[in-house]
User: Which sequence fits this backbone?
């Protein structure tokens, strides 16, 4: 008797389970804002966790991606041992119109100010 | 010799000290979102802490207001023993255009969905 191995699936909140407080918390961190900005610029392309150049350890990076996934900001799928990430833009734009873009704009504005 | 008592002044971040991560963290709580929504509807009028009907203890309420003040979201001034609160809309709209309104809209949308 063989037992089929269940494919590796990561837990994601359904659209109607996504809460504003959790999304804002997820975005209230400089590293996570960076990840989200990079994903937004990728315009839907899936990026692996290792693609991002982040000034943190791998375990911290994993933590940040999990926070983003569990809050409903990103979707993660396994491709072998790597995880590919994409922004859940359609869900976020439907639930919270304009929020993602205003946060991305705000993050850019702050980065620009800090560079001066 | 008399010593003049220093007026009770609360610490606030200057506009250029306000950080997006701190503002988002401040807004990532249901009670604080409620406070900010009420202040926004007051359109600049100063409201005392006791004005808000919040399902928390007084000490928790004080904590929430402090988080909002220290992050730069609200301004608090003493009037006798009470504190009057106002949204720092001009600062937030200048630093992070559209952010406050999109968060308020998102909070309203979520409240409406939950009421259904």
Assistant:
């Amino acid at each position: 008797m063989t037992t089929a191995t269940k494919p590796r699936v990561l837990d994601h909140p359904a659209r109607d389970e996504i809460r504003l407080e959790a999304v804002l918390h997820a975005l209230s961190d400089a590293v996570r804002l960076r990840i989200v900005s990079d994903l937004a610029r990728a315009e839907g392309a899936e990026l692996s966790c290792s693609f991002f150049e982040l000034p943190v350890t791998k375990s911290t990076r994993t933590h940040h991606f999990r926070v983003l996934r569990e809050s409903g900001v990103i979707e993660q799928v396994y491709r072998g041992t790597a995880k590919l990430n994409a922004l859940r833009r359609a869900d976020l734009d439907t639930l919270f119109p304009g929020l993602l873009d205003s946060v991305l704009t705000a993050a850019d504005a702050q980065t620009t100010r800090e560079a001066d």
